[in-house]
Amino acid sequence: MAVTIKDVAKKAGVNASTVSRVIKDSSQISDRTKTIVRKAMAELGYTRNAAAQILASGKTNTIGVVFPPVDNKSSQPFFMKILTAINETARESNVSIAIATGHTQKELKKQVQLMYSERRVDGFIVLYAGKTDSVREYLFGNNIPYVLVGTPSEHQNEITHVDNDNKLLGHEAVRHLAQLGHKNIAFVTDTKEGEVFAERFQGFNEEMMSRGLTSSLLKFGQNFSIGKATALIVIDDVLSLRVLERLKAQNLSVPDDISLITFNNSIFGTIMHPFLTTFDINVTRLGAASVGKFLDLLNSTSHYHEKTVIPFELILRESTKAK
Amino acid sequence: MAVTIKDVAKKAGVNASTVSRVIKDSSQISDRTKTIVRKAMAELGYTRNAAAQILASGKTNTIGVVFPPVDNKSSQPFFMKILTAINETARESNVSIAIATGHTQKELKKQVQLMYSERRVDGFIVLYAGKTDSVREYLFGNNIPYVLVGTPSEHQNEITHVDNDNKLLGHEAVRHLAQLGHKNIAFVTDTKEGEVFAERFQGFNEEMMSRGLTSSLLKFGQNFSIGKATALIVIDDVLSLRVLERLKAQNLSVPDDISLITFNNSIFGTIMHPFLTTFDINVTRLGAASVGKFLDLLNSTSHYHEKTVIPFELILRESTKAK
DNA sequence: CTGAAAGCGCTTACAG
DNA sequence: CTGAAAGCGCTTACAG
């Protein structure tokens, strides 16, 4: 029914193997033959059968994308954005994407295992980092090719990963505020878990110290108070929205009374005024790089695991102001 | 290298075709044989090769999920949520998911065409409705099985689709407000495009009329003013956040001065106070039903296209109050 | 209830 | 530069 390589071969007056070679643009085929075969393909409307190609070649040319096993997490715009970027970059290299989602770590692991053992994917891109979970243990333990988006807590030297420089991000946040004349700067977070917090906070600390300023850490919760801070560095823009609300309730105006800078540049930063001054972490490039690195991993004989650092960019908006 | 059906057959002392039948739990195989074969599979750690199975059977058992061709749209939590639901439901029926994303309609169409012609998918679930675009024209014109999430503007009777009853949603919003004693109720939107607006607004109108109330439509923009309204029905919760901010700027308090009810129950409804009273549209069931309907479509010989209506639920929170 | 055989549509050494 | 052949790992009529 559907047109196959044989139909093309017959029409072009060549062997099927020649058609196959033309498809992959093999250098051993003469230009004359290529032209003839391509014409035949076009006339018949040939498209290759993916399953046949995968079975015969032994390569799936598809990457499994693993989402974090927590519902609320994946509702963040970040995930949809990076999925789009990954999909687009992959397509440019003619590779497909399969996705793995699950409510629990166990479900997720089952799915990842199945995908790999059914030979649906060549490996994975994992969209969460931090502490090793059973999914990543499985990948790591079985030497399955994968790259992490984010920074792992352990084995950093043995895992290919792609991330921003979160420590530098902490430094830069302080720098921006200090340039505006702020000295009493506090770091605000709702969680002390994870590498992202650890690194951004460390960078903050280092920069404060190097400027002879005393740093303070504010945990956002019930009785949140900014003390004598004149500027806040908030761990991400969703929390910033809550902080903003609390400040308003305390009759503190941003940026007039207090400056606020944050990270990620998600859609949450421009929903309400003041629009947030924030660091864009370049999700599109994170996604593109993760695909690139994965493909490198697959093709390289050497098992060299490196970290790729994606640059960020300060987006100046309305929430910071000179003191 | 990997263990195949042949290895299992040898170990179990049967023919490969028998193993194949055991895998699909064919009723023609004796229980005794099934037990023996399953034991052999377990001992060898057999998993079937997806590509071989697809090639031999001619069925891909995978569904292509098509995202809307607009960036900002897909950043809404809705899409990640429904993708997760679709993936989970599909997995329960042993079907896989492939995704199609693109910045433009043209890109998207190219991708959809390729997926289908390479025989990677049996058909599609399209995550946007409204007016027909070139992607859906292609699907419709070529008789490719697909289901729509949402309500199409045309051919409603010839397209299988899954949606909430948006008109009823409009009715119910008025009902809730009327029960609280409100009479001056306005509908607020930032766009008049699309079936969602059309239907919710129509339901609003009908219900207002049947109660002898005069309905009014407010377009949200520069000089937004609520007039003499005491209650607002806002098209979705993202816009609600902006409306809330504008009201605050006008020294109007929600819900004390004015009530606000909205739709979708996304994460945006509980970021800031007042938490929004909203209708949950049950995204998880939308996703699950779209998979179910798609599978029905594939297996049915009759080409009967129906609409599936997913129930919604009122989530009472802080933004509405008795007058 | 089970086996033997052909076939799905490609790829890839091997020859020439 | 091209062809003939074997093989990838399944499924599925066909027989018995």
From TrEMBL, chains A, B:
Residues covered by the HTH lacI-type domain: 3-57
Protein source organism: Lactococcus hircilactis
Pfam families per record: LacI, Peripla_BP_3
Stated name of the protein: LacI family DNA-binding transcriptional regulator
Lineage summary: Bacteria, Bacillati, Bacillota, Bacilli, Lactobacillales
Keyword list, A-Z: DNA-binding, Transcription, Transcription regulation
GO molecular function terms attached to this record: DNA-binding transcription factor activity; transcription cis-regulatory region binding
